[in-house]
Amino acid sequence: MTIRTSIIMGLSAALLLSAGQVAAQQSKTVKIVLPAGPDRLDPCETPRSVIGRIIKQNVVETLVELDYAKRTTLPRLAESWEQTSPNEWVFKLHKGISFHDGAPFDAKSVIYSVERTTDPALTCITRTKYFDGTDITATEIDPHTVKFTTKKPVPILPTLLAQLAIASPNTPKGRYTAEPIGTGPYKFDSWTQGEKVVLKRNDDYWGEKPLIEQATYVWRTESSVAAAMVETGEADLAFSIAPQDATNPETDKVYPNSDSAMFRLSVDIPPLNDIRVRKAINLAIDRKAFLGSIISDKAELATQQIGPSVLGFNTALKPWPYDPEQAMKLLAEAKAAGVDVTKEIRMVGRPAMFANSNEFVEAAAEMLRGVGLNVKLDNLEMSQWLQMANKPFAAERQPNVFLTMHDNNSGDAAFTAFFKYHSNGRQSELHDPQLDALIVEAGTQSGDKRVAEYNEVFRRIYEDIVSDVPLFYMVNYMRVGSRIDFTPTIANAVELQLARLKLK
């Protein structure tokens, strides 16, 4: 090969590379990396981050949208609403909107979504987390006006409806769908199991046309892999980067994610049915030792299931101290009283629940063993973990210390208290009639009285019952590629509106 030929080939390669870079910069498609893939894409499961980050406000929309920064509600599919009595609200709907399958968006479609979501035949998390304990009925006043009636006053009904995704009336009732149909700026295109989900822009969208034409979602459990994909330009954005991988201040952005991490305790099963054992577990975990190492130093020690930004947060509760000597003393007292503190306890985690979650549960298990507890550690895959997380609980189960994450980015304790602690709550280990009454009563109140009653709910849970091991109020790191103009917020705990992504 001559020198001249080499130069020409080199220039050609450089031109091709330059053209490829320009094409990549001009492309209106994005690739987004999630820490785990969805197990379903049903509209009634949008409060789950693994699903909501893909389809909420992209494929399916809500009547009301939350403004997380101002802690208020904004119109979305509903143009206005008013409370006409303590138990009734009237919502006016936008006109001229169609679902992606051509069905009209109207009062009947809203009623259909309410009935489908609240149908006990589906264990939708929208129902079990937000609507359980709320007897709600939707009726048509006219084709574009819906009246919501509740058995008891629900002063935060617009906030509640911000969680209800409105799906096409052709969505089947009584079974989950893997092909969501909504009114949103993007249409569901395809889901290749184990590989990717693709959304394409809805050019007939009723609102402002977004810039991004297509989004492909992939998932990688390894934070370092997800971070590298964005670094090399293979992807544009990655959720849940581990603190040790968030090394580039230009691309790695930390934001509060509204999640509280905690261990849920099976309070009915020996030896966890003894409050001394439950207190010992809380005292045995050195939470501060994790901050700045396995857990980001931007996270905060938790005192209760809800975070400081949530209405009803009890400021009087304090984090558990690290006191292994006191833990061993309590276990000795329990043993002397006949409690078998040597019985095997199962600690349950889940891969990629949060960055470094595997390392966290391994260290926490060792801390419990250090005070004399017999702990077996299991990391379960998503489907197995979900089966343990939700009722009905297995009749013959071991005592378990169950790692869970709970987000309450809707700003009100009602969306936590019933779901997690009422006797009928889907993820509640408790059955305390006095607590049940407190939870129900608090949900009917407003203003300072609502705050005071929820304060008492959480005081009772964390001081009198000790049903959990509160750990951390979490933060997330998101790696945002150089071609994307986007700053994450607390909203991204459960959604990522593609329409808000801009290209540089």
Biggest pleated sheet: 11 strands, mixed
Cα distance spanning the termini: 41 Å
Averaging pLDDT over every residue, what do you get?
92
Contiguous uncertain segments of 5+ residues: 1-25
Which outline best applies? Answer: globular
Structural class: alpha+beta
Count of β-strands: 21
Q: What is the helical fraction, as a range of percent?
A: 25-40%
Number of helix segments? 14
What percentage of the residues does DSSP assign to strands (E)? 15-25%
Radius of gyration, in Å, reads 25 Å
Explain this structure.
This protein has 504 residues and is of the alpha+beta class. The chain is built from 14 helices and 21 strands. The strands form five sheets. Strands 1, 10, 11, 12, 13, 14, 15, 16, 17, 18 and 19 form an eleven-stranded mixed sheet that branches. A hairpin with a 3-residue loop joins strand 10 and strand 11 (196-201). Helix 7 (275-284) runs antiparallel to helix 9 (324-336), helix 12 packs antiparallel against helix 13 (433-443) and helix 13 runs antiparallel to helix 14.
